[in-house]
Each structure stands twice: as structure tokens, then as C-alpha cells.
Design a protein that fits this description.
It is elongated and about 85 Å long. It folds into two domains: 199 residues, Fumarase/aspartase (N-terminal domain) (Fumarase C, Chain B, domain 1), CATH 1.10.275; 296 residues, Up-down Bundle (Fumarase C, Chain A, domain 2). By secondary structure, it is mainly alpha-helical. A three-stranded antiparallel sheet has the order 4-6-7. A two-stranded parallel ribbon has the order 1-2. The chain is built from 18 helices and nine strands. Helices cover 53% and strands 6% of the residues. α15 packs antiparallel against α16 and α16 crosses α18.
Length: 513
Amino acid sequence: MTTPLILDAKRPLTIEEADALSSQMLQLRLTSDDNFKSYIQNGSDFLSHHFDKEGAIYGVTTGYGDNCDRAVPVDLVEDLPLNLLRFHGCGLGNYLTPSQTRMVLAIRLSTLCRGYSGVSFTLLKRLELLLEHDILPLIPSEGSVGASGDLTPLSYVAAVIMGEREVWYKDETRPTAEVYADLGIPAYKMRPKEPLAIMNGTSVMTALAVEAYKRAEYLSRLTMRLTALTSLALKGNPHHFNENLFATKPHPGQLRAAAAIRDDLSKVPLSFPEGRLQDRYSTRCAPHIIGVIEDMLPVFRKMIEIEMNSANDNPLIYNEQILHGGHFYGGHIAFAMDSLKNLVANLADLLDRQMAVLVDPKFNNGLPANLCGVKGKRLSINHGLKALQIGASAWTAEALKQTMPASVFSRSTESHNQDKVSMGTIAARDALRVNQLTEQVAAAQLISTLQALRLREQEGSLCLDNYPLDLQNFLTAVAQYVPFIGEDQPLDGCLRNLISVIQRRQLPLYRLG
């Protein structure tokens, strides 16, 4: 049975919980506490009272954005929400994945539970219902400038709540109205500010940021393990990771990376003499490269978790005041994702350089060219991992190209009302693309290191059976997807399988404090 997570006005979501919700390892439930229900409803009732008394509320009795000075007649106020979500129905690009969409819904529910958005408790229950039945709005990934929030992508959530557009339900795309009819769910009629509360926020970029964060975190740990295995395969100098050496420059993440690599190397009985005095930077300086992302991940975590647990629409209600502001601006997510993709691309570059050393007989300390597993006459027609290394360089180059920060490309839009925007959603999508490319490089380097270690075993300098259990488990997990590469063979199937395993974070790695 799926574990329930009970959400109320004060209960924050963590990155790990949002990630678990996306894969349905957790199920989100609103608290049944009547005090919470009253707290949420009070904001909605205050808006209604203010409308009756004052008659003018942004986004309720006015147009949106630059059209805020356009009065909406009272008899059309109830039609305004439908028009808002309809004219924003212009998203393009790939649809968000089911896991990303679940995270969007969960994060939007978390932000609205703070109680500052003036929505009804019934609207919160409708978001809960979508998650409970796994009715997932089809959300296009392109069309947001990251302020005023993710208007266009989130309009697809608002539309589905009201019974429009399409959803992903039970492994197929269907009209929302049809699914609602099958389940006996009535279309929801939104109160005047409610579609704005759904749409005017940062929940799409934040959901993508959570995924990018988790994938980057795993890639960092995987790069530590690959560095240790590369050093073994190259007969490298293990003293490059000496504890006393790193005590002289004690960046915490760098210390963790060096300790993990040192721990792996210390567990393997070596039957060859120590390597050359100084290995190349791609192994010797690996802790310094990995250490930067390790030190920055806690910073990014704080930014992401604050964003996913804060009110970020406009206007907000605080102590019976209607406050107009710009909390929909995704600057923190934009910065975190622009920075994250830079650091992840550096991991790709590191792994690509490690692989280049492994396949080159000028530098690999006696391994065959391109790690070819064939000897004798047929060696003349076999080329081992030559093309795989070219592919890794191509993926690395593309990852590095993607590191231009999206946040500096702000565009003045919407009649110069939105004249400075965050581009946070684009930055998050870029970060996911850099993750994807780096995972591809990591898969190539997994194939290379396993091949190199098998070749060392053939020459008698290493024995895989003597490895400690954690390294054996790791290499066994990789080996089920990667045969020994003797005669030339296509490797795309191996790559795709490994990439999938990496993205599901299924290879056993160490947990670092």
C-alpha cells in the first residue's frame, strides 16, 4: 500500500517527498483537520466579501497583466476565469512526463495550502482528486518566460480542473470531459480568482528543478565511483586522494568526494606497483571538480524547497489585506538551474576526459588501443570503443554548449508589463537536457571502465572476485547490461539500458553525509 503524506498549512514538502510523489511511492492527502479547512476557506470568503464591498479586485473584476485597468462588468466576472485559461492554451513542445506532471500537481497543492491565495478548500480537494486517481493534465513544456509564473503550462492544469482539454489516464490520452464522465466527476466551476491562483505560480519550473536536482545528485555520486574505477584501471596513484592532503583544503563537498574515492580504492587488493608520481588531472583533480557540485547541492536544495512551500501567485491575502506583488518571479529557480547545469556539464567533461585516457594506449598504462578485447589476426579489423569515445565527446560538447545561462535572456513581453522575466522554466528544461547528455556520457564511461577492468583481470593484475562486496555489487549490476566486448558490436542497446538504469537511480552507490 502506498504511504500517505498528510499536507496542511505548515507541513513543508521536501525534495525527496516530491520525488517519491512523482513515482507514486507516496500519496498526497489533505489533512482532515477542520481548523485547516476553515483557515483555507476564510481566505476565499474574505475575497468574496471584499468584492461585494469594494467591487474591484485584480484578476477578479479586472483584466490581467497590462489590462489590469480594464474593468470587467459584474455580469461577466464568472466568465473571466474560463477566458483566462483558454487564451493561454498555446503551449508547445514535448508534454511533461507523467512523473513530472504529478510533481507539478503536488507542488501547486503545497503552495496553495499556505493559505494566502484566496482559494476555496474545494479547489484543493480537486487537486487532491487528480493525484488520487492519477488523472494527469497534458502539459506542454514550452511557452513560459518564468514570470508571471508558468502561466501557459499551468493553464492546462486549470483547464483540466474545469473539465476541458486532455489528460493522460490509464496509459492513454483522453478528453478530460470523457474521463470525468466515466468516473462520475463533475467539472469544477472556479471562483473568480481561482484560475489565477492555479496559473500564476512557479510550480512547473520547480517540479522540473526537483527532477534535475535528484538526477544531478546521483550523477555526482556515480562520478565518484567511476573515478575510483578509472584510477584502478589505469593503475593510478591512490595517494592523490590522501586524507591529509585534503585536510589542507577542506571544502566539505571536496572532502566527501575524496573520501568516497579513497574508500573504494582502499578496499581493492592491488597486485601492481603504485602508478606514476602524478596522474592526469581527470583523475587527480576529480574530487576538486565533483566537490563543487557537492558543495552547491545544499544551496540549491534550500532554494527549491523554499519555492515549493511558499505562496507564489498574485495577489495574495495576508491578515485581511490584499497584497499585490511579484512572488511568481522564478529568479531563484532560474539561478539554481543555470548553476546546476554548469556543474553537471563539468561532470560530463570530466568523465569524457577519463574515457579518452582509458582508450588511448599512449596514456592508459598498457591497456590495448580503444580497449579492444580481440587479439591476434582479427585485431586488424576490430576497433573496440573508438566510436563510443567519439560519441561521448559529442554528448559532452552538446552539454557544455547548453551551459549558457537562460536567466540573462530576459525578454520584455506582454505590452511591457512583464518587462523583466526570470526564464526559470527554460533554465530548468536546459538543466534536464544537460542531465540527459551527462547520463549518456556516464553510460559510455561505465562500459569503458568495466571493459578496462576485465582486460586487467585477463592480464592478471586485478581479480574482480577479490573486490569488496559493495564494488562487486556495483560491477555486477553494470555487467548484466554490458557483455565483454571482443568482436566489434553495436553498443546502442547497452547504452540505452544503462541510461535507463542511471535515470532510475538503480545502480548501488554510497550514501554520503
